[in-house]
Amino acid sequence: MAASSASLQRFLPPSAHAAASSSSRCRRPGRARAAVSSVPSSTPAAGEVPAERLEPRVQEREGGYWVLKEKYRTGLNPQEKVKIEKEPMGLFMEGGIKDLAKIPMEEIDADKLTKDDVDVRLKWLGLFHRRKHQYGRFMMRLKLPNGVTTSEQTRYLASVIEAYGSDGCADVTTRQNWQIRGVTLPDVPAILEGLRAVGLTSLQSGMDNVRNPVGNPLAGIDPDEIVDTRPYTNLLSSYITNNSQGNPTITNLQCNDTLFAGNFRPRKWNVCVIGSHDLYEHPHINDLAYMPAVKGGKFGFNLLVGGFISPKRWGEALPLDAWVPGDDIIPVCKAILEAFRDLGNRGNRQKTRMMWLIDELGMEVFRSEVEKRMPNGVLERAAAEDLIDKAWERRDYLGVHPQKQEGLSYVGLHVPVGRLQASDMFELARLADEYGSGELRLTVEQNIVLPNVRNERLDALLAEPLLRERLSPQPSLLLRGLVACTGNQFCGQAIIETKARALQVTRDVEKRVAVPRTVRMHWTGCPNSCGQVQVADIGFMGCLTKDADGKICEAADIFVGGRVGSDSHLADVYRKAVPCKDLVPVVADLLVERFGAVPREREEDEE
Protein backbone atom coordinates (compact mmCIF):
# COMPACT_ATOMS: atom_id res chain seq x y z
CA MET A 1 0.00 0.00 0.00
CA ALA A 2 2.85 2.38 -0.71
CA ALA A 3 2.62 5.13 -3.25
CA SER A 4 4.94 5.05 -6.21
CA SER A 5 6.60 8.10 -7.72
CA ALA A 6 7.14 6.37 -11.05
CA SER A 7 4.33 8.22 -12.76
CA LEU A 8 4.83 11.59 -11.08
CA GLN A 9 7.17 13.05 -13.70
CA ARG A 10 4.52 12.60 -16.39
CA PHE A 11 2.34 15.16 -14.67
CA LEU A 12 4.90 17.84 -13.85
CA PRO A 13 5.52 20.84 -16.09
CA PRO A 14 8.90 21.28 -17.77
CA SER A 15 11.45 21.87 -15.01
CA ALA A 16 13.27 24.68 -16.75
CA HIS A 17 11.29 27.72 -17.77
CA ALA A 18 13.26 30.28 -19.71
CA ALA A 19 14.16 33.07 -17.36
CA ALA A 20 14.00 36.60 -18.57
CA SER A 21 17.30 38.32 -19.18
CA SER A 22 16.68 40.45 -16.13
CA SER A 23 14.05 40.42 -13.42
CA SER A 24 12.52 43.87 -13.49
CA ARG A 25 10.14 44.96 -10.81
CA CYS A 26 8.01 46.43 -13.58
CA ARG A 27 7.86 43.30 -15.76
CA ARG A 28 4.49 42.80 -17.42
CA PRO A 29 3.32 39.47 -18.78
CA GLY A 30 4.03 38.43 -22.33
CA ARG A 31 1.34 37.92 -24.93
CA ALA A 32 -0.93 34.96 -24.29
CA ARG A 33 -1.04 32.02 -26.65
CA ALA A 34 -3.62 29.33 -27.27
CA ALA A 35 -3.95 26.59 -24.68
CA VAL A 36 -1.60 23.66 -25.22
CA SER A 37 -4.46 21.21 -25.05
CA SER A 38 -7.99 22.39 -25.67
CA VAL A 39 -10.39 20.14 -23.86
CA PRO A 40 -13.14 18.85 -26.16
CA SER A 41 -16.65 20.06 -25.40
CA SER A 42 -18.61 17.67 -23.24
CA THR A 43 -22.01 16.18 -23.79
CA PRO A 44 -23.93 17.39 -20.74
CA ALA A 45 -27.26 15.97 -19.75
CA ALA A 46 -29.93 17.31 -22.08
CA GLY A 47 -31.13 20.77 -21.14
CA GLU A 48 -28.83 21.06 -18.12
CA VAL A 49 -25.45 22.57 -19.05
CA PRO A 50 -24.95 24.43 -22.34
CA ALA A 51 -21.90 23.23 -24.27
CA GLU A 52 -20.42 26.75 -24.33
CA ARG A 53 -20.39 26.75 -20.53
CA LEU A 54 -17.89 23.89 -20.65
CA GLU A 55 -15.37 25.81 -22.73
CA PRO A 56 -12.17 26.40 -20.70
CA ARG A 57 -11.95 30.00 -19.53
CA VAL A 58 -8.15 30.06 -19.27
CA GLN A 59 -5.27 29.68 -21.68
CA GLU A 60 -1.54 29.08 -21.41
CA ARG A 61 0.89 31.86 -22.15
CA GLU A 62 4.65 32.10 -22.44
CA GLY A 63 6.49 30.59 -19.49
CA GLY A 64 3.83 27.94 -18.82
CA TYR A 65 1.60 30.37 -16.91
CA TRP A 66 -2.19 30.22 -17.24
CA VAL A 67 -4.36 33.32 -17.61
CA LEU A 68 -8.00 34.17 -18.15
CA LYS A 69 -9.02 34.49 -21.79
CA GLU A 70 -9.82 37.99 -23.04
CA LYS A 71 -13.51 37.30 -23.62
CA TYR A 72 -14.02 36.31 -19.99
CA ARG A 73 -12.40 39.43 -18.53
CA THR A 74 -15.56 41.43 -17.93
CA GLY A 75 -16.84 41.86 -14.39
CA LEU A 76 -13.60 40.62 -12.86
CA ASN A 77 -12.83 40.95 -9.19
CA PRO A 78 -9.74 43.03 -8.32
CA GLN A 79 -7.59 39.99 -7.61
CA GLU A 80 -7.99 38.61 -11.12
CA LYS A 81 -6.88 41.99 -12.49
CA VAL A 82 -3.73 41.91 -10.36
CA LYS A 83 -2.85 38.46 -11.73
CA ILE A 84 -3.42 39.53 -15.33
CA GLU A 85 -1.24 42.62 -14.90
CA LYS A 86 1.75 40.58 -13.74
CA GLU A 87 2.30 36.86 -13.16
CA PRO A 88 2.78 36.24 -9.40
CA MET A 89 4.90 33.11 -9.85
CA GLY A 90 7.45 35.15 -11.77
CA LEU A 91 8.67 36.51 -8.45
CA PHE A 92 9.96 33.03 -7.70
CA MET A 93 10.46 31.29 -11.02
CA GLU A 94 12.17 34.27 -12.66
CA GLY A 95 14.00 35.50 -9.57
CA GLY A 96 11.95 38.68 -9.15
CA ILE A 97 11.99 38.38 -5.37
CA LYS A 98 15.71 39.17 -5.27
CA ASP A 99 15.18 42.56 -6.90
CA LEU A 100 12.02 43.32 -4.95
CA ALA A 101 13.77 42.61 -1.65
CA LYS A 102 16.29 45.39 -2.35
CA ILE A 103 13.66 48.12 -2.69
CA PRO A 104 12.78 50.20 0.40
CA MET A 105 9.14 49.94 1.49
CA GLU A 106 8.61 53.66 0.84
CA GLU A 107 9.50 53.19 -2.83
CA ILE A 108 7.45 50.01 -3.04
CA ASP A 109 4.35 51.81 -1.80
CA ALA A 110 4.81 54.62 -4.31
CA ASP A 111 4.43 52.24 -7.28
CA LYS A 112 1.17 50.32 -7.72
CA LEU A 113 2.91 47.39 -9.39
CA THR A 114 5.41 46.81 -6.60
CA LYS A 115 2.81 47.56 -3.93
CA ASP A 116 0.67 44.80 -5.45
CA ASP A 117 3.77 42.58 -5.47
CA VAL A 118 4.17 43.03 -1.72
CA ASP A 119 0.52 42.92 -0.71
CA VAL A 120 -0.77 40.31 -3.17
CA ARG A 121 1.68 38.49 -5.45
CA LEU A 122 4.14 37.49 -2.72
CA LYS A 123 1.39 35.29 -1.29
CA TRP A 124 2.18 32.83 -4.09
CA LEU A 125 5.55 32.49 -2.36
CA GLY A 126 3.85 32.01 1.01
CA LEU A 127 4.56 35.58 2.19
CA PHE A 128 1.74 37.65 3.67
CA HIS A 129 2.40 41.33 4.38
CA ARG A 130 0.90 42.37 7.71
CA ARG A 131 0.30 45.91 6.48
CA LYS A 132 -2.43 46.69 8.99
CA HIS A 133 -0.81 45.42 12.19
CA GLN A 134 2.90 44.87 11.43
CA TYR A 135 3.78 47.17 8.55
CA GLY A 136 6.87 45.94 6.74
CA ARG A 137 6.71 42.49 8.32
CA PHE A 138 5.44 39.26 6.83
CA MET A 139 3.95 35.99 7.89
CA MET A 140 5.53 33.09 6.01
CA ARG A 141 3.51 29.91 5.51
CA LEU A 142 5.34 26.69 4.65
CA LYS A 143 4.48 23.45 2.89
CA LEU A 144 4.76 20.51 5.28
CA PRO A 145 3.04 17.45 3.77
CA ASN A 146 1.44 15.25 6.41
CA GLY A 147 2.71 17.63 9.09
CA VAL A 148 6.03 15.75 9.30
CA THR A 149 9.09 17.83 10.13
CA THR A 150 12.58 17.29 11.49
CA SER A 151 14.62 18.70 14.36
CA GLU A 152 16.94 20.35 11.83
CA GLN A 153 14.03 22.10 10.11
CA THR A 154 12.55 23.14 13.45
CA ARG A 155 15.87 24.64 14.58
CA TYR A 156 16.19 26.58 11.36
CA LEU A 157 12.70 28.07 11.69
CA ALA A 158 13.41 28.88 15.35
CA SER A 159 16.60 30.70 14.33
CA VAL A 160 14.63 32.78 11.82
CA ILE A 161 12.00 34.01 14.28
CA GLU A 162 14.55 34.42 17.10
CA ALA A 163 16.29 37.09 15.02
CA TYR A 164 13.10 39.19 15.10
CA GLY A 165 12.82 39.32 18.88
CA SER A 166 9.34 40.11 20.17
CA ASP A 167 8.03 40.42 16.59
CA GLY A 168 8.92 36.79 15.83
CA CYS A 169 6.85 33.74 16.71
CA ALA A 170 5.44 30.61 15.07
CA ASP A 171 2.02 29.00 14.82
CA VAL A 172 0.93 25.44 14.19
CA THR A 173 -1.97 25.76 11.73
CA THR A 174 -5.21 23.89 11.18
CA ARG A 175 -3.64 22.34 8.09
CA GLN A 176 -0.81 20.55 9.89
CA ASN A 177 1.62 23.28 8.96
CA TRP A 178 4.02 25.97 10.22
CA GLN A 179 3.53 29.71 9.92
CA ILE A 180 6.36 31.96 11.08
CA ARG A 181 5.98 35.67 11.84
CA GLY A 182 8.06 38.81 11.90
CA VAL A 183 9.88 38.27 8.58
CA THR A 184 11.19 41.38 6.81
CA LEU A 185 11.42 41.71 3.04
CA PRO A 186 15.22 42.20 2.73
CA ASP A 187 15.73 38.85 4.52
CA VAL A 188 13.42 36.85 2.26
CA PRO A 189 15.92 35.63 -0.39
CA ALA A 190 18.25 34.30 2.31
CA ILE A 191 15.36 32.68 4.18
CA LEU A 192 14.13 30.98 1.01
CA GLU A 193 17.62 29.61 0.44
CA GLY A 194 17.78 28.44 4.05
CA LEU A 195 14.45 26.64 3.64
CA ARG A 196 15.74 24.90 0.53
CA ALA A 197 18.88 23.79 2.36
CA VAL A 198 16.85 21.98 5.05
CA GLY A 199 14.30 20.51 2.64
CA LEU A 200 11.46 22.99 3.15
CA THR A 201 9.56 25.38 0.89
CA SER A 202 6.95 28.11 1.28
CA LEU A 203 6.05 28.04 -2.41
CA GLN A 204 2.39 27.98 -3.45
CA SER A 205 1.11 27.94 0.13
CA GLY A 206 -1.27 30.89 -0.18
CA MET A 207 -3.83 32.55 -2.43
CA ASP A 208 -5.01 30.68 -5.56
CA ASN A 209 -3.09 27.53 -4.77
CA VAL A 210 -3.45 24.06 -3.32
CA ARG A 211 -2.86 24.19 0.43
CA ASN A 212 -0.75 21.82 2.51
CA PRO A 213 -1.68 18.15 1.85
CA VAL A 214 -2.99 16.72 5.13
CA GLY A 215 -2.56 13.13 6.32
CA ASN A 216 -2.73 10.98 9.41
CA PRO A 217 -0.44 12.52 12.09
CA LEU A 218 0.24 8.97 13.33
CA ALA A 219 1.15 7.65 9.87
CA GLY A 220 3.54 4.71 10.02
CA ILE A 221 3.43 4.40 13.81
CA ASP A 222 -0.25 3.74 14.51
CA PRO A 223 -1.02 0.07 15.32
CA ASP A 224 -4.53 0.53 13.90
CA GLU A 225 -3.82 2.55 10.77
CA ILE A 226 -5.32 1.53 7.44
CA VAL A 227 -2.50 2.91 5.31
CA ASP A 228 0.59 5.05 5.81
CA THR A 229 -0.40 8.39 4.29
CA ARG A 230 3.10 9.90 4.11
CA PRO A 231 4.06 8.58 0.64
CA TYR A 232 0.81 9.90 -0.80
CA THR A 233 0.94 13.37 0.76
CA ASN A 234 4.59 13.67 -0.27
CA LEU A 235 3.67 12.78 -3.85
CA LEU A 236 0.86 15.32 -3.86
CA SER A 237 3.12 18.05 -2.52
CA SER A 238 5.81 17.20 -5.07
CA TYR A 239 3.29 17.45 -7.90
CA ILE A 240 1.67 20.63 -6.57
CA THR A 241 4.97 22.54 -6.33
CA ASN A 242 6.87 20.72 -9.11
CA ASN A 243 9.38 19.49 -6.55
CA SER A 244 9.59 22.99 -5.03
CA GLN A 245 10.50 24.53 -8.41
CA GLY A 246 7.04 25.98 -9.09
CA ASN A 247 4.09 24.50 -10.95
CA PRO A 248 2.41 27.35 -12.87
CA THR A 249 -0.21 25.04 -14.41
CA ILE A 250 -2.15 25.08 -11.13
CA THR A 251 -1.28 28.43 -9.56
CA ASN A 252 -4.20 30.33 -11.10
CA LEU A 253 -7.13 28.31 -9.81
CA GLN A 254 -9.38 31.29 -9.12
CA CYS A 255 -9.78 34.14 -6.72
CA ASN A 256 -12.62 35.93 -5.04
CA ASP A 257 -13.07 39.60 -4.40
CA THR A 258 -12.25 41.58 -1.28
CA LEU A 259 -13.93 40.73 1.98
CA PHE A 260 -12.80 43.84 3.78
CA ALA A 261 -11.19 46.93 2.30
CA GLY A 262 -7.64 46.23 1.21
CA ASN A 263 -7.70 42.51 2.02
CA PHE A 264 -8.12 39.84 -0.65
CA ARG A 265 -9.81 36.60 0.24
CA PRO A 266 -8.10 33.76 -1.63
CA ARG A 267 -9.31 30.89 -3.70
CA LYS A 268 -7.97 28.05 -1.57
CA TRP A 269 -8.19 24.37 -2.48
CA ASN A 270 -7.64 21.72 0.18
CA VAL A 271 -6.65 18.07 -0.17
CA CYS A 272 -6.18 15.24 2.32
CA VAL A 273 -5.40 11.52 2.34
CA ILE A 274 -7.19 9.41 4.96
CA GLY A 275 -5.08 6.84 6.76
CA SER A 276 -7.05 5.78 9.83
CA HIS A 277 -10.57 5.16 11.07
CA ASP A 278 -10.25 8.28 13.25
CA LEU A 279 -10.47 10.64 10.27
CA TYR A 280 -7.97 12.99 11.91
CA GLU A 281 -7.65 14.66 8.51
CA HIS A 282 -11.25 16.03 8.45
CA PRO A 283 -12.13 14.80 4.93
CA HIS A 284 -15.59 16.36 5.02
CA ILE A 285 -14.18 19.92 4.77
CA ASN A 286 -11.63 19.25 2.01
CA ASP A 287 -12.05 19.97 -1.70
CA LEU A 288 -10.59 16.53 -2.42
CA ALA A 289 -10.37 13.66 0.07
CA TYR A 290 -8.84 10.28 -0.72
CA MET A 291 -10.78 7.61 1.21
CA PRO A 292 -9.00 4.19 1.36
CA ALA A 293 -10.96 1.50 -0.47
CA VAL A 294 -10.34 -1.87 -2.15
CA LYS A 295 -11.72 -2.65 -5.59
CA GLY A 296 -11.18 -5.89 -7.46
CA GLY A 297 -8.70 -6.97 -4.83
CA LYS A 298 -6.54 -3.86 -5.37
CA PHE A 299 -5.93 -1.10 -2.84
CA GLY A 300 -6.88 2.42 -3.80
CA PHE A 301 -9.08 5.35 -2.87
CA ASN A 302 -12.67 6.43 -3.29
CA LEU A 303 -12.93 10.19 -3.75
CA LEU A 304 -14.92 12.87 -1.94
CA VAL A 305 -15.06 16.36 -3.46
CA GLY A 306 -16.30 19.84 -2.67
CA GLY A 307 -16.04 20.16 1.10
CA PHE A 308 -15.46 23.74 2.23
CA ILE A 309 -16.00 26.45 4.80
CA SER A 310 -16.56 30.05 3.71
CA PRO A 311 -18.18 33.20 5.13
CA LYS A 312 -21.63 32.74 3.60
CA ARG A 313 -21.85 29.00 3.13
CA TRP A 314 -20.26 25.77 4.29
CA GLY A 315 -20.85 22.24 3.11
CA GLU A 316 -19.53 18.72 3.48
CA ALA A 317 -17.65 16.91 0.74
CA LEU A 318 -19.71 14.61 -1.50
CA PRO A 319 -18.84 11.33 -3.26
CA LEU A 320 -17.52 11.77 -6.80
CA ASP A 321 -18.41 8.15 -7.50
CA ALA A 322 -14.81 7.50 -8.47
CA TRP A 323 -11.98 5.18 -7.41
CA VAL A 324 -8.27 5.36 -8.26
CA PRO A 325 -5.50 2.82 -7.62
CA GLY A 326 -3.23 3.61 -4.70
CA ASP A 327 -0.16 3.95 -6.89
CA ASP A 328 -1.84 6.39 -9.27
CA ILE A 329 -3.23 9.27 -7.20
CA ILE A 330 -1.69 12.19 -9.11
CA PRO A 331 -3.60 12.01 -12.43
CA VAL A 332 -7.00 12.44 -10.78
CA CYS A 333 -5.77 15.28 -8.60
CA LYS A 334 -4.45 17.00 -11.72
CA ALA A 335 -7.71 16.38 -13.61
CA ILE A 336 -9.86 17.80 -10.81
CA LEU A 337 -7.64 20.85 -10.41
CA GLU A 338 -7.67 21.53 -14.15
CA ALA A 339 -11.46 21.21 -14.34
CA PHE A 340 -11.74 23.71 -11.50
CA ARG A 341 -9.15 26.03 -13.06
CA ASP A 342 -10.74 25.85 -16.52
CA LEU A 343 -14.41 26.19 -15.61
CA GLY A 344 -14.66 27.90 -12.22
CA ASN A 345 -16.38 31.24 -11.60
CA ARG A 346 -14.06 34.27 -11.32
CA GLY A 347 -16.56 37.01 -10.71
CA ASN A 348 -18.96 36.73 -7.78
CA ARG A 349 -16.75 36.56 -4.70
CA GLN A 350 -19.23 34.39 -2.82
CA LYS A 351 -19.32 31.64 -5.43
CA THR A 352 -15.76 30.65 -6.25
CA ARG A 353 -15.10 27.56 -4.14
CA MET A 354 -15.20 24.30 -6.07
CA MET A 355 -18.54 23.22 -4.58
CA TRP A 356 -20.22 26.13 -6.35
CA LEU A 357 -18.95 24.76 -9.67
CA ILE A 358 -20.21 21.29 -8.75
CA ASP A 359 -23.59 22.76 -7.86
CA GLU A 360 -23.78 24.62 -11.16
CA LEU A 361 -22.78 21.71 -13.38
CA GLY A 362 -24.22 18.88 -11.34
CA MET A 363 -22.03 16.12 -9.95
CA GLU A 364 -22.26 13.86 -12.99
CA VAL A 365 -21.31 16.62 -15.46
CA PHE A 366 -18.49 17.71 -13.18
CA ARG A 367 -17.34 14.08 -13.01
CA SER A 368 -17.38 13.85 -16.81
CA GLU A 369 -15.22 16.98 -17.02
CA VAL A 370 -12.75 15.37 -14.64
CA GLU A 371 -12.83 12.10 -16.59
CA LYS A 372 -12.04 13.74 -19.96
CA ARG A 373 -8.96 15.31 -18.33
CA MET A 374 -7.64 11.93 -17.17
CA PRO A 375 -4.63 10.65 -19.19
CA ASN A 376 -6.64 7.83 -20.79
CA GLY A 377 -10.03 9.53 -20.57
CA VAL A 378 -11.32 6.96 -18.07
CA LEU A 379 -12.26 7.37 -14.41
CA GLU A 380 -13.37 4.21 -12.65
CA ARG A 381 -16.57 4.19 -10.64
CA ALA A 382 -16.23 4.02 -6.85
CA ALA A 383 -15.68 0.85 -4.89
CA ALA A 384 -18.83 -0.31 -3.13
CA GLU A 385 -17.42 0.50 0.33
CA ASP A 386 -14.40 2.28 1.72
CA LEU A 387 -12.29 0.80 4.51
CA ILE A 388 -13.39 3.21 7.26
CA ASP A 389 -15.03 1.60 10.29
CA LYS A 390 -18.11 3.78 10.70
CA ALA A 391 -18.56 2.70 14.34
CA TRP A 392 -15.00 3.64 15.28
CA GLU A 393 -14.64 5.95 18.29
CA ARG A 394 -12.15 8.69 17.51
CA ARG A 395 -9.04 8.36 19.67
CA ASP A 396 -7.21 11.12 21.52
CA TYR A 397 -3.56 11.26 20.45
CA LEU A 398 -2.46 13.54 23.32
CA GLY A 399 -0.47 11.77 26.02
CA VAL A 400 1.60 8.58 25.81
CA HIS A 401 0.58 5.79 23.41
CA PRO A 402 2.29 2.61 22.16
CA GLN A 403 3.44 2.48 18.54
CA LYS A 404 3.23 -0.47 16.17
CA GLN A 405 7.02 -0.70 16.56
CA GLU A 406 7.78 -2.77 19.64
CA GLY A 407 9.37 -0.85 22.51
CA LEU A 408 8.47 2.58 21.11
CA SER A 409 5.77 5.08 22.00
CA TYR A 410 4.59 8.42 20.69
CA VAL A 411 3.79 11.36 22.95
CA GLY A 412 1.14 13.89 21.94
CA LEU A 413 1.85 17.40 23.24
CA HIS A 414 -0.73 20.13 23.67
CA VAL A 415 0.36 23.47 22.18
CA PRO A 416 -1.89 26.16 23.69
CA VAL A 417 -3.78 27.66 20.69
CA GLY A 418 -0.87 26.60 18.46
CA ARG A 419 1.46 29.48 19.40
CA LEU A 420 5.19 28.84 19.92
CA GLN A 421 8.22 31.01 20.59
CA ALA A 422 11.74 30.39 19.32
CA SER A 423 12.80 28.97 22.69
CA ASP A 424 9.96 26.42 22.55
CA MET A 425 11.02 25.28 19.08
CA PHE A 426 14.67 24.93 20.01
CA GLU A 427 13.61 22.77 22.97
CA LEU A 428 11.27 20.67 20.82
CA ALA A 429 14.14 20.02 18.41
CA ARG A 430 16.39 18.99 21.29
CA LEU A 431 13.75 16.65 22.72
CA ALA A 432 13.14 15.07 19.31
CA ASP A 433 16.85 14.30 19.01
CA GLU A 434 17.44 13.25 22.61
CA TYR A 435 14.36 11.09 23.13
CA GLY A 436 13.07 10.26 19.65
CA SER A 437 14.34 9.96 16.09
CA GLY A 438 14.68 13.67 15.32
CA GLU A 439 11.13 13.88 13.99
CA LEU A 440 8.05 15.89 14.96
CA ARG A 441 4.46 15.67 13.69
CA LEU A 442 2.06 18.61 13.51
CA THR A 443 -1.71 18.10 13.76
CA VAL A 444 -4.77 19.94 12.47
CA GLU A 445 -5.73 20.68 16.08
CA GLN A 446 -2.56 22.80 16.34
CA ASN A 447 -0.71 20.26 18.49
CA ILE A 448 2.55 18.31 18.12
CA VAL A 449 3.32 14.59 18.29
CA LEU A 450 6.80 13.37 19.27
CA PRO A 451 7.20 9.86 17.80
CA ASN A 452 9.66 7.00 18.27
CA VAL A 453 10.39 7.44 21.97
CA ARG A 454 11.91 4.37 23.64
CA ASN A 455 9.67 3.25 26.47
CA GLU A 456 12.50 3.30 28.99
CA ARG A 457 13.01 7.00 28.21
CA LEU A 458 9.39 8.08 28.70
CA ASP A 459 9.68 9.07 32.35
CA ALA A 460 12.67 11.28 31.64
CA LEU A 461 10.86 12.93 28.73
CA LEU A 462 7.73 13.59 30.76
CA ALA A 463 9.87 15.21 33.46
CA GLU A 464 11.33 17.75 31.01
CA PRO A 465 10.49 21.37 31.94
CA LEU A 466 8.94 22.09 28.53
CA LEU A 467 6.34 19.36 29.06
CA ARG A 468 5.71 20.22 32.69
CA GLU A 469 5.42 23.97 32.18
CA ARG A 470 4.33 24.69 28.58
CA LEU A 471 3.38 21.78 26.32
CA SER A 472 1.51 19.35 28.52
CA PRO A 473 0.74 15.80 27.35
CA GLN A 474 -2.32 15.87 29.63
CA PRO A 475 -4.07 19.25 29.44
CA SER A 476 -7.53 19.81 30.90
CA LEU A 477 -10.61 18.53 29.07
CA LEU A 478 -11.46 21.98 27.74
CA LEU A 479 -7.94 23.10 26.89
CA ARG A 480 -7.12 19.91 24.98
CA GLY A 481 -9.72 20.62 22.31
CA LEU A 482 -9.05 24.35 22.01
CA VAL A 483 -8.20 25.79 18.57
CA ALA A 484 -7.78 29.45 17.61
CA CYS A 485 -6.88 31.33 14.45
CA THR A 486 -4.36 34.17 14.43
CA GLY A 487 -6.86 36.85 15.40
CA ASN A 488 -6.41 40.59 15.07
CA GLN A 489 -3.05 40.61 16.82
CA PHE A 490 -1.53 39.99 13.38
CA CYS A 491 -4.30 39.32 10.85
CA GLY A 492 -5.80 42.31 9.07
CA GLN A 493 -9.05 40.48 8.33
CA ALA A 494 -9.74 39.38 11.90
CA ILE A 495 -12.40 41.38 13.70
CA ILE A 496 -11.49 40.24 17.21
CA GLU A 497 -8.48 39.00 19.19
CA THR A 498 -8.65 35.22 19.46
CA LYS A 499 -5.65 33.37 20.87
CA ALA A 500 -5.23 35.08 24.26
CA ARG A 501 -8.99 35.46 24.62
CA ALA A 502 -9.64 31.78 23.85
CA LEU A 503 -7.23 30.75 26.61
CA GLN A 504 -8.62 33.23 29.11
CA VAL A 505 -12.28 32.42 28.45
CA THR A 506 -11.54 28.69 28.70
CA ARG A 507 -9.71 29.05 32.00
CA ASP A 508 -12.47 31.25 33.43
CA VAL A 509 -15.12 28.75 32.33
CA GLU A 510 -13.17 25.93 33.97
CA LYS A 511 -13.48 27.77 37.27
CA ARG A 512 -17.26 27.62 36.94
CA VAL A 513 -17.98 24.13 35.60
CA ALA A 514 -16.42 20.68 35.27
CA VAL A 515 -16.99 18.74 32.05
CA PRO A 516 -17.14 14.91 31.86
CA ARG A 517 -15.35 14.70 28.50
CA THR A 518 -13.34 16.72 26.01
CA VAL A 519 -15.34 19.53 24.44
CA ARG A 520 -13.75 20.91 21.28
CA MET A 521 -13.96 24.71 21.20
CA HIS A 522 -12.72 26.61 18.12
CA TRP A 523 -12.23 30.36 17.71
CA THR A 524 -12.03 32.32 14.47
CA GLY A 525 -11.56 36.05 14.23
CA CYS A 526 -13.75 36.63 11.16
CA PRO A 527 -16.22 34.84 8.85
CA ASN A 528 -13.39 33.29 6.79
CA SER A 529 -13.30 30.67 9.56
CA CYS A 530 -9.62 29.76 9.47
CA GLY A 531 -10.29 28.40 12.96
CA GLN A 532 -12.90 26.03 11.48
CA VAL A 533 -15.65 26.83 13.97
CA GLN A 534 -18.15 24.77 11.98
CA VAL A 535 -16.46 21.47 12.90
CA ALA A 536 -16.28 22.27 16.63
CA ASP A 537 -18.56 21.21 19.45
CA ILE A 538 -18.70 24.92 20.27
CA GLY A 539 -17.41 27.56 17.86
CA PHE A 540 -16.84 31.30 18.22
CA MET A 541 -16.80 33.54 15.13
CA GLY A 542 -15.66 37.12 15.63
CA CYS A 543 -17.97 40.03 14.93
CA LEU A 544 -18.87 43.45 16.35
CA THR A 545 -21.96 44.41 18.28
CA LYS A 546 -23.23 46.98 20.78
CA ASP A 547 -23.00 46.26 24.48
CA ALA A 548 -25.63 47.07 27.12
CA ASP A 549 -24.44 50.69 27.11
CA GLY A 550 -24.79 51.01 23.37
CA LYS A 551 -21.04 51.02 22.71
CA ILE A 552 -19.45 49.05 19.86
CA CYS A 553 -17.51 46.07 21.23
CA GLU A 554 -15.88 42.85 20.12
CA ALA A 555 -18.32 39.94 20.05
CA ALA A 556 -18.77 36.40 18.74
CA ASP A 557 -21.43 34.38 16.98
CA ILE A 558 -21.64 31.04 18.78
CA PHE A 559 -21.90 27.79 16.80
CA VAL A 560 -22.92 24.47 18.34
CA GLY A 561 -23.05 20.88 17.14
CA GLY A 562 -20.07 20.30 14.86
CA ARG A 563 -18.78 16.73 14.76
CA VAL A 564 -15.68 15.08 13.32
CA GLY A 565 -15.22 11.43 12.41
CA SER A 566 -17.51 9.10 10.47
CA ASP A 567 -20.62 10.84 11.80
CA SER A 568 -19.29 14.26 10.79
CA HIS A 569 -21.67 17.19 10.87
CA LEU A 570 -21.11 20.92 10.50
CA ALA A 571 -22.30 23.16 13.33
CA ASP A 572 -25.26 25.52 13.28
CA VAL A 573 -25.50 29.02 14.71
CA TYR A 574 -26.63 28.87 18.34
CA ARG A 575 -26.55 32.54 19.30
CA LYS A 576 -25.55 35.68 17.44
CA ALA A 577 -23.31 38.57 18.49
CA VAL A 578 -22.56 37.84 22.14
CA PRO A 579 -20.18 40.50 23.53
CA CYS A 580 -16.85 38.84 24.32
CA LYS A 581 -16.93 40.25 27.84
CA ASP A 582 -20.18 38.29 28.42
CA LEU A 583 -19.02 34.95 26.99
CA VAL A 584 -17.89 33.17 30.17
CA PRO A 585 -21.33 32.71 31.80
CA VAL A 586 -22.94 31.95 28.42
CA VAL A 587 -20.40 29.21 27.66
CA ALA A 588 -20.61 27.78 31.17
CA ASP A 589 -24.41 27.52 30.89
CA LEU A 590 -24.11 25.99 27.42
CA LEU A 591 -21.72 23.32 28.71
CA VAL A 592 -24.20 22.42 31.46
CA GLU A 593 -27.16 22.44 29.06
CA ARG A 594 -25.64 20.49 26.17
CA PHE A 595 -22.48 18.73 27.34
CA GLY A 596 -23.20 17.36 30.81
CA ALA A 597 -21.02 19.84 32.70
CA VAL A 598 -21.51 20.21 36.44
CA PRO A 599 -21.26 23.58 38.23
CA ARG A 600 -18.23 23.63 40.50
CA GLU A 601 -20.33 24.64 43.54
CA ARG A 602 -22.59 21.60 43.17
CA GLU A 603 -19.59 19.37 42.52
CA GLU A 604 -18.04 20.53 45.81
CA ASP A 605 -21.35 20.13 47.69
CA GLU A 606 -21.76 16.56 46.46
CA GLU A 607 -18.27 15.71 47.65
From TrEMBL:
- Matching Gene3D superfamilies: 3.90.480.20, Sulfite Reductase Hemoprotein, domain 1
Keyword annotations for this protein, in alphabetical order, are:
4Fe-4S, Heme, Iron, Iron-sulfur, Metal-binding, Nitrate assimilation, Oxidoreductase
Residue intervals of the Nitrite/Sulfite reductase ferredoxin-like domain: 131-198, 401-465
What InterPro entries does this protein's entry cite? NIR_SIR_4Fe-4S, NiRdtase/SiRdtase_haem-b_fer, Nit/Sulf_reduc_fer-like_dom_sf, NO2/SO3_Rdtase_4Fe4S_dom, NO2/SO3_Rdtase_4Fe4S_sf, NO2/SO3_Rdtase_FeS/sirohaem_BS
Q: Annotated pathway, please?
A: Nitrogen metabolism; nitrate reduction (assimilation)
Q: Which GO terms describe its molecular function?
A: 4 iron, 4 sulfur cluster binding; ferredoxin-nitrite reductase activity; metal ion binding
What NCBIfam families does the record point to?
A: PRK09566.1
Q: Which family does it belong to?
A: Belongs to the nitrite and sulfite reductase 4Fe-4S domain family.
Q: How is this protein named in the record?
A: Ferredoxin--nitrite reductase, chloroplastic
**Organism this protein belongs to:** Urochloa decumbens
